[in-house]
Amino acid sequence: MAGVPPGKTYTPGLDFSGVTYTCPAKKAQSEADRAHEIIKEKLPLLHQINALLAVTFGDRPTFFIDGRGDEAKILESCDDEPDCRLNIKPEYIIQFYENKLEPRYGPASAFSRLPEPTEDVEQVKRDIEEFGYGLAKNVLSPEQVAIMRKAVVEQAAGERKAGIAQVDGGPDGPNQRLWTLINKGDDFLDLLNHPIIDEFIPWALGEHAIITTYTANIARPGNVPMQLHTDQVAVQPPIRDIAFGMNILFYLEDVTEKNGATRVYPGSHLGQIFTVEGSAPAEAPAGTALIVDSRIWHATGPNREEAGERPLILLFFMRSFIRQQENNFLSLRRSDVWPKLSDRHKRMLGFYTTGALGGVDGEVREGLFVEWKDGVGEMRAPNDRS
C-alpha cells in the first residue's frame, strides 16, 4: 500500500525490495515544478485574494504570492508579514488544477429564507435538497429529551471521572465527545428504533445504508469553533453530485447561536461559494433533529454562554459501500452489548450482506447476517436463530 513500507518477506524468491519504478527525489522536484507552473498560469486571477500569501511546499523554501495590487506577483522573498501561510503538498495544487480535489465553485446565492423547525416531513426534505439541511421539530418529546440528556451527561461524567474523556474545542478541551454510543447504554440502543431514521435515511441513501458513527457532542462555554469541514471528506476524489451520507443530530437542549449552534453554509452541498459571513446557526428547540446532507460545509459554533452545556447526539449514516469510521466488528467484539442487538441494529451496523459486500469467507449471498460464534464469524439467514 502506498506510503507503507513492505514488511518481512516470508517466501524466498518473493523479495521485491530491490525493485523501483520511480525516483522519489525526481518525482518531488517534478511535482514542485509543475505546481509553480500552475500558480504562474493562474496569476492573472490571484490578485483577487487581495493579500500576501506565504506558500511552502513541504521542506522546500517558502515563496510568496503578492495579490495586494492590481496584478499578482510571485516573490522569492518578502519582509512583510504575510496575511496567511500555506504549507501544502505540490501534488495537491496539481490535483486541484486537474479537478481531482475539490476547490469551491459556483456562484453564491442570496437566500430569501432559510430552513425553520417544522413537523412537515416533506418540507424538511425540500429544505435538505435546497439548502443541504433541514430541521424536523418535536422528533423527541420532552420526556424523551430528558431521558437521552441524562444518559449523555451521566456517561460524560463517568468518562471524565475515569480519566478517559475525549475532549476538544481548544487547548483547555471544554467540549467532550462520546464515541461508540452503541456500547454505552440501552437508551442509545432504543434511540435506533426511532422512525425518523426510516423516514429520511432510505430516502437519501437507499435501503442498505449503515451507521458510520454514533456519537454525542457536548459544547461548553469557552470552546473554540470547530474547523470547517464536510462529513463527506473521506470520499476522494470528491464527487459533488451525490450525497454519500446523512447525519441526524438530536437536540437535547434548546440550541441557539449563543450556546454553540452548528454553523452551516446553506447551499454549499451543491458547490456554492461561501464566506464566513455566509454561515447560519442551526437554531431550534430541544427535541428537534437537525438532518444534514454529508456534502454541506459546517462546524460546531462557539458556546458564549456563561455556564451550562449544549449536548446533542449525532447519528451518521453512509451508503453501504463506504467504509465506516467506527470499526464495529472490533468495537463490539468483546462487548456484552452483542446479545442485546436486534436484527435492525445489526443491519444498521453493517453485520448484513448486501449485494457483493459484507460476507465472511467468501459467503456474500444477499440478505445474510454476520454472527459471532466460537470466536469466528458465520452467516445466518434472517429469523434463523439456530
From TrEMBL:
InterPro entries: Fungal_Metabolite_Diox, Phytyl_CoA_dOase-like
Domain of life: Eukaryota
SUPFAM superfamilies (UniProt xref): Clavaminate synthase-like
Protein name per UniProt: Dioxygenase
